[in-house]
Amino acid sequence: AQSVSQHNHHVILSEAASLELGCNYSYGGTVNLFWYVQYPGQHLQLLLKYFSGDPLVKGIKGFEAEFIKSKFSFNLRKPSVQWSDTAEYFCAALIYNQGGKLIFGQGTELSVKP
Amino acid sequence: DVKVTQSSRYLVKRTGEKVFLECVQDMDHENMFWYRQDPGLGLRLIYFSYDVKMKEKGDIPEGYSVSREKKERFSLILESASTNQTSMYLCASTPTGPYEQYFGPGTRLTVT
């Protein structure tokens, strides 16, 4: 069955540290990939998405992600985190033969120390 | 802006009660989804709907049912609530095609 895996369950960083959150998916066909973020007490909201084209996609708040097809990966990066980036981050894949269903990873909780 | 609203932010129910969670979207989206979110498990799909009166089981449909009588509204029903259904429930919608899903604020349900 198709799945999405996030390597880190909880990441703790100091402000200004660089961030990379891992995401791998298991499907050999066409996928659309997403990173969602959930700030404490808020809606799940879209951070960035990859559909096609340039594999390096930029999202809101200085986040970016790189799609590497050969590694089935879509890792999220930010060069310098801020305390306000404290949130839970979810990677998700939209698999074409599954209609509009998203498959989510387990989530990574990011805590940024001021 | 797309808006997805859910009827309650917090709900406390007793074991055995019938529970209704309502979701409304205002963007004429064809597809609507119900997830539950639990720590360490991410979001798991309960049910989804591609059209009015259509429904499809997701990954964890047991103990739940849904209703979609109007395009903008998708209801999740717990026929007889149990303590293991204590969770955060999220509703989402999307138009047909490869688009991102738009999420509601969630309902935190506690079953005692």
Give the helix/strand layout.
The complex is a heterodimer of chains A (114) and B (112).
Chain A: E1 4-6, E2 10-14, E3 19-21, E4 23-25, E5 31-38, E6 44-50, E7 56-58, E8 64-68, E9 73-78, E10 87-95, E11 102-104, E12 108-113
Parallel strand pairs in A: 2-12
Antiparallel strand pairs in A: 1-4, 3-9, 5-6, 5-10, 7-8, 8-9, 10-11, 10-12
Chain B: E1 4-6, E2 10-13, E3 19-25, E4 31-38, E5 42-49, E6 56-57, E7 64-70, E8 73-78, E9 87-94, E10 102-103, E11 107-111
Parallel strand pairs in B: 2-11
Antiparallel strand pairs in B: 1-3, 3-8, 4-5, 4-9, 5-6, 7-8, 9-10, 9-11
Question: What's this entry about, in short?
Answer:
The complex is a heterodimer of chains A (114) and B (112). Chain A has 114 residues and is mainly β.
Fold and architecture overview:
The complex is a heterodimer of chains A (114) and B (112). Chain A has strands spanning 4-6, 10-14, 19-21, 23-25, 31-38, 44-50, 56-58, 64-68, 73-78, 87-95, 102-104, 108-113. By secondary structure, chain A is an all-beta fold. In chain A, strands 2, 5, 6, 10, 11 and 12 form a six-stranded mixed beta sheet that branches. In chain A, strands 3-9-8-7 form a four-stranded antiparallel beta sheet, with no helix packed on it. Chain A has a two-stranded antiparallel sheet with strand order 1-4. In chain A, strand 10 (87-95) and strand 11 form a beta hairpin. Chain B has 112 residues and is an all-beta fold. In chain B, 0% of the residues lie in helices and 54% in strands. Chain B is built from no helices and eleven strands. In chain B, strands 2, 4, 5, 6, 9, 10 and 11 form a seven-stranded mixed beta sheet that branches. In chain B, strand 9 (87-94) and strand 10 (102-103) form a beta hairpin. The radius of gyration of chain B is 13 Å and the shape is globular. The chains are: A mainly beta (114), B mainly beta (112). The interface between A and B is medium-sized, with 24 and 25 residues.
Features:
heterodimer, A: 114 residues, mainly beta, 6-stranded mixed sheet, 4-stranded antiparallel sheet, 0% helix, globular, B: 112 residues, 7-stranded mixed sheet
